[in-house]
Design a protein that fits this description.
This protein has 607 residues and is an alpha/beta fold. It has three domains: 123 residues, no CATH class; 247 residues, Rossmann fold (3-Layer(aba) Sandwich), CATH 3.40.50; 144 residues, Multifunctional 2-oxoglutarate metabolism enzyme, C-terminal domain (Rossmann fold). The chain contains 21 helices and 17 strands. The strands form four sheets. It has a seven-stranded mixed sheet with strand order 7-4-8-9-11-10-15, with helices on both faces. Strand 5 and strand 6 form a beta hairpin. It is globular, with a radius of gyration of 29 Å. It starts with a helix and ends in a 12-residue tail after the last helix.
C-alpha cells in the first residue's frame, strides 16, 4: 500500500539489503497498490514526498508510475520490471496509481474523511467495465462474452465461499520439500525431552585443529595469536573450555554432520566483546580467513549485518523458514537492542506456528547480564519473552556453562522438529574463571541440562535453604556462599526457563527432606526478569514435592522503571545486597544507610 511503503521503516531496511552480501536476493519487484489513502489518512498527511515510491530512490531503483485503470499498461510495466530484475538483479518499483472503491472494508464509510474523492469514485466505472468496453470497441469481444465470463467468475467465488465453511487446516501441511523428515511434536513431553548431542573424541580433536591452525602466510593480529595459543592449551589439557570455544565446537560439529550454519549480527564476525573471532583478518592485506568454512559437508556463513534489528531479524526468520536443515542465528549487539525488532517477535517468532501453522527454528542470541554498564547495556528484556510463552511455542534459555550452550545449539538440529530458541547470552561469563567446561562435557552421551547443580553443594539431607536462579548471578551467589562458610545452602541454576523444567526440579526438591526455605534470586528488578513467570511454577513444584516451604521468597532488586543503574558504585552495592539477601544475611539496615547518604559499598558478608 502507498501509506505503508512510504511510512514503514521495514521498507527502507529491505531496500537497504538489496546490494549487501548475505542479504541480496538477486533483486526484488516492489509493487505499490497506490489507492491514495492509508486507512483514513490522505497522502498529504502520510508523507512528505510527492510519491510513496520516492524512498526507493535511495538505492537508485527504477520506478514506474502506471495507471491502474489501464490493465495493459500495468501488464507492460510488470514485464519490463521482470526483465530488468532478471538482467541486472537489482530492485525495481511499480507504483500503480488507482483508488479504493469502498472504505477500509465494505462496511466502512470513507465519506467521513474523503468526501470529495469518494463522490468521484462512486460515479467512476470499475476497471472491469472500462476494459470490457475498450475490448468491445476494438472488436476483440462482444457484450455476451463479457457478461458470461463475469457470471462464471462470480459462480466460482460462491463455490469457494461455500466450501470454506467445512475447511479445516492441516496442522502438518508444510512438512514437505526441504521440511521433509521433520514433523510437529506428537505431544508436549516429546518437545521437552532431551536427546544425546555429544560428539566423538575423533571429531572433537579434529575440530580443535581446525580452530587453532593458522594458514601459512596469513598474518593474524598478535592478540588473536594469544587467543589461539590459549585454545591450543584447552584442547591439549582438556580443561577450561570457554564460551566462544564451546560455540565454535557446536557450529563445527553441525557442519561436519551436513547441516548448514548461518550467523548474522552487527558484530558477529569478531563478536561484540572480541570473544568469537570467527573471521581472521590478515593484518597486511585484510584478506579474510574463516576456519569453519573449510569444513566439508555443511555451509557456514558469518555476517556482519547492517545496523538494523527489525529488518535483519525478519530476514533471518524467513531464512530459517526456508532452510530448516540450517542452524540460523541472529545475534544482537547487546540484548537491549532487540526491542527494535519487537514487531517480528510478536507477529512471527512467538505466534507464527499458532497463527499460520509454520514451524521455525530461528535462534536469537541476546547478550544479557548486569555488570554496571547502565540501562542500555544490561537487559535483553527476558520478561517480555517469558510473557509470550505458551503452548510450547518457543524455548527460552539462560545458560551458564560453555558445554550446556554447546548442547543447546546442537539440540536445535538434532530433534525432528523446529522451535524458535531465545538465548540470554553472557558478557562477563565469556571469560569468567568458573564458567568453563571440560572436554568430556562435550563428548559421548552428554546432552543439554535443563537445570544444573551447585558446584560445591552440600548433601541433600543437609540443605535447609535452596536458592534457584538463572544466569551469571549463580556464580556471585556461589562465591559468596563458599566464602561465608555456609554449609546449608544449595544453589541450583535453571538453564531453561521455558518450557519450565518442573519434572527434574521436583525430583531435586524431594531429595531435600530438611528444606526450610526456597529463594528465587535474580539480578533484574522485581518487575522484570523471571520472577513473575517462575513464581507460580515454583509453587506447583513445592506442592508436588511436598517439602517444607509452600512459596518461594524473592531476592533481587526493587521494581524500577529503568532496567539498570548507570553508576558503577550503585550497581556494586545493589548486586552485593541481593546476593546477601538471597543467602539470608540481614542487609536491610545497610541498604537504608546507603540510600541515606552513606558511601561505603555493601559487600558480601564473607569479605
Amino acid at each position: 500500500g502507498d501509506a505503508a511503503f512510504a511510512g514503514q521503516g521495514i521498507v527502507w531496511e529491505c531496500l537497504g539489503f538489496s546490494g549487501i552480501r548475505g542479504y541480496n536476493t538477486g533483486g526484488c519487484l516492489h509493487f505499490i497498490v497506490n489507492n491514495q489513502v492509508g486507512f483514513t489518512t490522505s497522502p498529504q498527511y502520510a508523507r512528505s514526498s510527492p510519491y510513496p515510491s520516492d524512498v526507493a530512490k535511495g538505492v537508485q531503483a527504477p520506478i514506474f508510475h502506471v495507471n491502474g485503470d489501464d490493465p495493459e499498461a500495468v501488464t507492460f510495466a510488470c514485464k519490463i520490471a521482470i526483465e530488468f530484475r532478471q538482467t541486472f538483479h537489482r530492485d525495481i518499483v511499480i507504483d500503480m496509481w488507482c483508488y479504493r472503491r469502498f472504505g477500509h472494508n465494505e462496511g466502512d464509510e470513507p465519506g467521513f474523511t474523503q468526501p470529495l474523492m469518494y463522490k468521484v469514485i462512486k460515479n467512476h466505472p470499475a476497471v472491469s467495465t472500462l476494459y470490457a468496453q475498450r475490448l468491445q470497441a476494438e472488436g476483440v469481444i462482444d457484450a455476451n462474452w463479457s457478461n458470461e465470463h463475469a457470471m462464471r467468475f462470480v459462480q466460482a467465488l460462491e463455490q469457494e465461499f461455500a466450501s470454506a465453511a467445512d475447511y479445516k487446516a492441516n496442522a502438518a501441511d508444510w512438512f514437505g520439500g526441504r521440511w521433509s523428515g521433520l514433523s510437529k511434536p506428537a505431544d508436549p513431553e516429546t518437545a521437552r525431552r532431551n536427546v544425546p548431542t555429544g560428539i566423538t573424541r575423533k571429531l572433537f580433536d579434529s575440530l580443535g585443529r581446525t580452530l587453532t591452525t593458522v594458514p601459512e602466510g596469513h598474518n593474524i593480529h598478535p592478540t588473536l595469536s594469544r587467543v589461539l595459543d590459549a585454545k591450543k592449551t584447552m584442547f591439549s589439557s582438556g580443561e577450561n573450555f570457554d564460551w566462544a570455544t564451546g560455540e565454535a565446537l557446536a557450529f563445527g560439529s553441525l557442519l561436519s554432520e551436513g547441516y548448514g550454519v548461518r550467523l548474522s549480527g552487527q558484530d558477529s564476525g569478531r563478536g561484540t566483546f572480541s570473544q568469537r573471532h570467527g573471521v581472521w583478518v590478515d593484518q597486511t592485506t585484510e584478506e579474510k580467513y574463516v576456519p569453519l568454512s573449510t569444513l566439508p559437508h555443511g555451509r557456514f556463513e558469518i555476517l556482519d549485518s547492517p545496523l538494523s534489528e527489525f529488518g535483519v531479524l525478519g530476514f533471518e526468520y524467513g531464512y530459517a523458514g526456508a532452510e530448516p536443515k540450517t542452524l540460523v542465528l541472529w545475534e544482537a549487539q547487546f540484548g537491549d537492542f532487540v526491542n527494535g525488532a519487537q514487531t517480528m517477535i510478536d507477529q512471527f517468532i512467538a505466534s507464527g506456528e499458532a497463527k499460520w501453522l509454520r514451524a521455525n527454528g530461528l535462534v536469537m542470541l541476546l547478550p544479557h547480564g548486569y555488570e554496571g554498564q547502565g540501562p542500555e547495556h544490561s537487559s535483553a528484556r527476558l520478561e517480555r519473552f517469558l510473557q509470550l510463552c505458551a503452548e510450547d511455542n518457543i524455548q527460552v534459555a539462560n545458560c551458564t556453562t560453555p558445554a550446556n550452550y554447546f548442547h543447546l545449539l546442537r539440540r536445535q538440529m538434532a530433534r525432528p522438529f523446529r522451535k524458535p530458541l531465545i538465548v540470554m547470552t553472557p558478557k562477563s561469563l565469556l571469560r569468567h574463571k568458573l564458567a568453563v567446561s571440560k572436554a568430556e562435557d562435550f563428548q559421548g552421551e552428554s546432552h543439554f541440562m535443563r537445570i544444573l547443580s551447585d558446584m560445591n553443594a552440600p548433601a541433600d539431607k543437609d540443605v535447609k535453604r535452596l536458592i534457584l536462579c538463572s544466569g551469571k548471578v549463580a556464580y556471585d551467589l556461589m562465591e559468596a556462599r563458599d566464602a561465608s562458610g555456609d554449609k546449608n545452602t544449595s544453589i541450583v541454576r535453571i538453564e531453561q526457563l521455558y518450557p519450565f523444567p518442573s519434572e527434574p526440579l521436583i525430583v531435586r526438591l524431594k531429595r531435600m527432606t530438611n528444606l526450610e526455605e526456597l529463594v528465587w534470586a535474580q539480578e533484574e528488578p522485581r518487575n522484570a526478569g523471571s520472577w513473575s513467570f517462575v513464581d507460580p511454577y515454583l509453587e506447583e513444584c513445592l506442592t508436588e514435592a511436598n517439602v517444607g516451604p509452600t512459596r518461594a521468597r524473592y531476592a533481587g532488586r526493587r521494581a524500577a522503571a529503568a532496567t539498570a543503574t548507570g553508576l558503577a558504585k550503585r550497581h556494586q552495592a545493589e548486586q552485593a545486597a541481593l546476593v546477601a539477601e538471597a543467602l539470608g544475611h540481614n542487609v536491610r539496615k545497610e541498604i537504608r544507610r546507603q540510600r541515606s547518604g552513606g558511601k561505603k559499598p555493601i559487600t558480601p558478608p564473607s569479605t
